Each structure stands twice: as C-alpha cells, then as structure tokens.
Amino acid sequence: MKAIVITTPGGPEVLQLQEVEDPQVKDDEVLIKIEATALNLADTFQRKGFHPPPKGVSEYPGLECSGTIEAVGRNVSRWKIGDQVCALLNGGGYAEKVAVPAGQVLPIPSGVSLKDATSFPEVASTVWSTVFMTSHLSAGETFLVHGGSSGIGTFAIQIAKYRGARVFVTAGSEEKLAFCKESGADVCINYKTEDFVARVKEETGGRGVDVILDCVGAAYYQQNLESLSIDGRLFIIGFLGGTHREIDLRPLLAKRLTVQGAGLRNRSLENKAAIISEVEKNVWPAIAAGKVKPIVFKHFPLSEAAEAHRLIESSKHIGKILLVP
Ligand SMILES: NC(=O)c1ccc[n+]([C@@H]2O[C@H](COP(=O)([O-])OP(=O)(O)OC[C@H]3O[C@@H](n4cnc5c(N)ncnc54)[C@H](OP(=O)(O)O)[C@@H]3O)[C@@H](O)[C@H]2O)c1
C-alpha cells in the first residue's frame, strides 16, 4: 500500500508518499481500507519528532479515519467485511489501509458521508472524555472553549450547545469568531483585542464560567483560574502557550476549583474503547439528529500531506482538514 512516511524529523517537506508493507490485522483488530483521514495538530508535533507513537503502534501519522472494513480478526464479532465505519486510531491513518482495535471503531453516523465521518472520532473522543465524562458539564452551566475555530473547538461548541450549556469561545480573528457564532457560540471573544477574563466576568455578572476546555496551558493558567466560578473545572488538553509559568494558586482554595489534564493517544486500549462506547451512546445521536455537523475546511489528496500540514500550521483553517488516499 501507499503511506505517508516521516522521512526524518522536520518541516512539512519530510512527509513523503512511499510504497510500504500492508498492515497485519491482529485477532482483536479490523483492517480498514481508508476513504479519508483527518489532520490533528498533534500530527505536526509527531512530524517534528516531539510526539512519538506509543510502543508497537504504526509509525505513520494519522489518528482517525473513515473507510470500509476489508478484514476482521478472529476475536471480532461486531464488525464484518464491507461495513462502512470510522475509527479512532493509535496511528497510521495517513495510508491506504490501517489495522485498528475493534473497540475503537464506530459506525458512520446517519446523515454524514463516509468521507466526512473521519472528522469526528478524535474530536468527539477528546471533548466527550474531558468536558463531559470528567468535568461533568451539564445543562444550564456555562462553558468556555479556547481555540473555538479549531477542530476541537468547532465540535465542542456544537455538542455543548446540544447539551444545553451557554458557550463562550476565544479565537484570534473576527472571521473565526463569526463562524463560532454561526455554529452556536453565545459569547465570542477575540483574544488578540480583548481581555477574556474581563469579558467572562462581564457576561456572567462577575460569577465566572463553570467549565473551561483549554489548549493553551501555561500562558492562560492564571487567567483560566480567574475566569472560573465557585466549584469551576479547568481541563487542559494542550500547551500551545507553553508549560512553565509562576502562578498565584489562591483561586484554587477560594473557589474550590478542579484542574485536570489528559492526552488521548497515550491511554490504554481498554480506556479508549470505553470512551468510544460513551461517544457512540451520547454523541452519535446528536450527529444523527443534525445538531452536530462535520466542519470540513478542505480536502487534500494524501500525496499532498505536506501542503495540508502547511495549512494547519498557518492556522488559517476553521474546523478539520482531510486527506484522501
Ligand atoms: N489532549 C488531547 O487528548 C488532545 C486531543 C486533541 C487535540 N488536543 C489539542 O487541542 C488543540 C486543538 O487541536 P486541533 O487539532 O483541533 O487544532 P487546530 O484545528 O490546528 O487548531 C488550533 C487552534 O489553536 C489556536 N491557537 C494557536 N496558538 C494559540 C495560542 N498561543 N493561543 C490561543 N490560541 C491559539 C489557533 O486559532 P487562533 O487563530 O484563534 O489562534 C488554531 O486554530 C491543540 O492544542 C491540540 O494539541 C489535545
């Protein structure tokens, strides 16, 4: 098969389409012939050599895909050859085929094309496992997501609105904020021109928000603590603003705050399967009802993976970027 190989750690040009061995399907896995894969910012970290695949996992990038099942391991009962599916991958999505543990496979949500379905597994698993399974965002609460126009952000806005939350977003341009508003965000904050803490306080009558999903890390840590309400919950999933900073911790005690963080890729297979099962139960009905839509910015042929990486690193996109073998 053909796959995108990271020929050496570096810039987008190190991504090259090469002829490689087909993946071998293990007893608990299925083999998917890939219709499309989607980019995640983490793929660019892997390309640069900062985010190596876990042991035993395909070295090709790509954390999600959609496609058709071509082979089934002997312990797999739910899926059969010919099923159209999408899947959360441990790696290996930038290819024509991938082997994936059966517990990480999902049906195509009704109303979504086979190609566009690849835009859901990574964002749905990340947002559901953090904001809902862990931080317990509930109807009537307020929710702030940083990077509102990102793949993660565009999904988080829609699912949080569907679940009855009031949604706040930050983003770096008026065009991105307009898109967030159209997708359902209630309060849209341009972090380049506005102080988001002041705006959150103003919009909540001084109370603060109940839950924050943060991909900025150190640069926003203090402001995030200040933006939370009593019993507020901060979930950190990224460090776009670095990992080190001096912090005044007093809001933690004064407001009984909870701060948590997690990566998705390094979780155990059992843990990922449990998340996928919750996603199917709780998120898939929202997609089938048309309340959560795939937000696809652009498709590229797999051979143009380098160009797709240049686009995601330029931050000019809104939502997901797809690669099609
Ligand atoms: N822990 C996990 O399991 C997990 C899983 C998936 C994703 N993530 C993280 O979630 C984030 C979003 O991922 P994605 O793939 O959806 O990314 P994406 O679509 O590439 O979007 C990233 C967005 O972050 C914003 N941004 C960049 N630098 C920023 C900064 N210094 N301050 C504020 N905003 C900044 C950019 O928008 P602006 O133009 O508005 O700046 C950009 O659109 C990434 O940090 C990623 O690593 C974590």
From TrEMBL:
Keywords for this entry?
NADP, Oxidoreductase
Q: What is this protein called?
A: Quinone oxidoreductase
Q: Which InterPro entries does this UniProt record tie to the protein?
A: ADH-like_C (IPR013149), ADH-like_N (IPR013154), ER (IPR020843), GroES-like_sf (IPR011032), NAD(P)-bd_dom_sf (IPR036291), Quinone_OxRdtase_PIG3 (IPR014189)
- State the species of origin: Quillaja saponaria (Soap bark tree)
Q: Which PANTHER family match?
A: OS02G0805600 PROTEIN, QUINONE OXIDOREDUCTASE PIG3-RELATED
Where is each Enoyl reductase (ER) domain found? 10-323
- Report a single Gene Ontology molecular function: oxidoreductase activity, acting on NAD(P)H
Against SMART domains, the record matches this protein to: PKS_ER
